[in-house]
Write a structure and sequence with these properties.
Layout: H1 11-29, H2 36-39, E1 42-50, E2 56-64, H3 69-78, H4 80-87, E3 99-104, H5 107-118, H6 121-132
Parallel strand pairs: 2-3
Antiparallel strand pairs: 1-2
């Protein structure tokens, strides 16, 4: 059966990504990583994208209340091997334990920009014209 040429992730990639997200969240919530930068920060993991071979997991994180987001991302990447070991017990059904990469989640920034544009006077004025007709 020919494989679909869609550009989106497969169901398996999405399912495994969600399992990895939950496992990462538990490790960070229990504060198992001993790094001064990470310990003082609440970290939200919005999404984990898996590579097609499930060997690389890219976690998109938002450090909440951190003074320097990039320092938190660097600390997570520095401790990626330790985190990989701590997560392995929750993901023992996987054939290969994925390598973790952490990136800053910019989706909230994008939502804020879109919201700002929608609330701008020009857009509000144009929307009011549509309501009058």
């Amino acid at each position: 059966m020919p494989r679909s040429q869609s550009s989106g992730p497969s169901q398996r990639m999405l399912r495994v990504g969600e399992q990895v997200r939950h496992a990462l969240s538990e490790v960070l919530q229990r504060r198992e990583v001993s790094d001064d930068v990470i310990e003082g920060t609440v970290i939200s993991i919005s999404e984990v994208r898996m590579s097609p071979d499930l060997k690389i997991a890219t976690a998109f994180v938002s450090p909440l209340g951190a003074k320097d987001d990039e320092a938190v991302i660097e600390a997570l990447n520095r401790n990626a091997k330790f985190i990989r070991g701590r997560v392995s017990s929750a993901l023992r059904q996987m054939k290969y334990m994925p390598e973790f990469r952490f990136r800053r989640d910019t989706s909230y920034d994008n939502f804020a920009k879109i919201d700002e544009i929608l609330r701008s006077p020009e857009v509000v004025r144009d929307l009011d014209k549509d309501d009058e007709e």
